[in-house]
Each structure stands twice: as C-alpha cells, then as structure tokens.
Design goal:
The N terminus is likely disordered. The protein contains six helices and no strands. With about 210 residues, the protein is an all-alpha fold. It has one domain: Up-down Bundle (Four Helix Bundle (Hemerythrin (Met), subunit A)), CATH 1.20.120.80. Helices cover about 80% and strands about 0% of the residues.
C-alpha cells in the first residue's frame, strides 16, 4: 500500500514537472497570404471587367472584337485548365503530408506540383505562338497579353513560394503541429487556378 502511494506520488511529480508545450507561432504568413490572394482576385476581376466592357462596345458598333489574323484555339487552354487543376490536387496533397509529418510524400507532392506548373507554362508559351497576337496598335492583343501574362507571373510566384516552403520543411521548420507555411502556399496556388478559370471562360471560350 505504501509502495503504491509512493509510485502515485512520483507519477504526479513527473506530470507536474513536464514542460508545457511550445506555443504556436503567429499565423501571420497564412493571414497575409489570404489577403494577397484576395487582392490578386480583385486585380484580375478588374482587368477582366475592362476586357469584357471593351469587347461588348466593339461588338455593338458592328465590328469584330478580334482581328482576322488572331486565332485562339481551345485545345491548349483546355489542357492548361486541367493541368493546373491537377496541380491544385497535388499541392493539397502536400498540405496533407505536412500535417502528418510525412516528409517523403511532402517532397514528392511538391515535385509533382512544380512539374505540372512547368507543363502549364510550356503550353502557354506554345499557345502564344498559335494565336498570332500583334501588340502594335491593337488594344485587344495588349489586353490579352496583359491578363494572361499577369496570371503566368502569379503562377511563377506561387512556384517560388512552394519551393521556399519545401526548404523550410527540409530544415525542420514545418511540422504537423505548425505547417501554416505550406497551407499558405497552397491557398495562393489554388488562387492561381481560380484566376485562370476566369481567363479560360472569358477569353478562350467566349472569345
């Protein structure tokens, strides 16, 4: 009986002396990324509003919006849409792997996401060669280059963001308890797909 009481007392002392868990880091990166993503969406919605307004005005005056020399195929934009959609799934896979301390799948998912992003950029460059856009005295081509080019820049920024979070995971700064960095990168990555979805419908589908 005395031995049991002594063991219980020792166990209580061990529990009492255990250090408290480390406090969570502030989620400034996650919050900042949400605001930055929202700002990007507002920016592209404004650009698309200008594009659609000028297109409707041009058609009301009885003319065609795009010059005869400009040809916008739909095959490449469709492939780009599904390529970026697949990359959104692989980026979310990276978030799951980080939340479960699965480093192997984390690095694999980041690599696959970057590969799909490179495929998207390559297809976009090929699409530019097919469209035959001429920016000299042609506001339609200028607008299309501005909108689609800004989305490509946004994707490159998302790729850099994801690579940086991968390095943070490599040095042990991202764990299952605190993986807001990879979640922030995923939010920005998903935003690039949402932006491209708007571009795909407004420019490539409805023309």
């Amino acid at each position: 009986m005395t031995v049991a009481l002594a063991e219980d007392r020792d166990a209580q002392l061990v529990v009492a002396d255990a250090p408290p868990p480390a406090p969570r880091r502030p989620r400034g990166l996650l919050v900042g990324t949400v605001f930055a993503s929202a700002a990007c969406v507002v920016f592209f919605v404004g650009l698309m509003g200008v594009y659609l307004h000028l297109r409707s005005v041009g058609r009301l005056h009885g003319g065609t919006w795009l010059p005869q020399a400009v040809h916008i195929p739909l095959t490449q934009p469709n492939v780009m849409l599904f390529t970026l959609l697949m990359s959104s799934f692989t980026v979310q896979w990276a978030v799951w792997a980080a939340a479960h301390d699965d480093r192997r799948h984390l690095y694999l998912s980041i690599g696959v996401s970057l590969l799909l992003a490179f495929a998207f950029l390559n297809q976009a460059a090929y699409l530019y060669t097919l469209m035959g856009l001429d920016v000299h005295g042609n506001q339609q081509s200028v607008l299309i280059y501005t909108i689609t080019g800004a989305q490509l820049v946004m994707l490159v920024v998302a790729m850099i963001f994801l690579v940086l979070m991968g390095f943070r995971a490599l040095v042990g700064q991202l764990t299952s308890r605190q993986h807001d960095g990879i979640s922030a990168a995923a939010i920005f990555w998903h935003t690039t797909w949402v932006v491209y979805l708007l571009i795909w419908f407004a420019i490539y589908v409805t023309k």
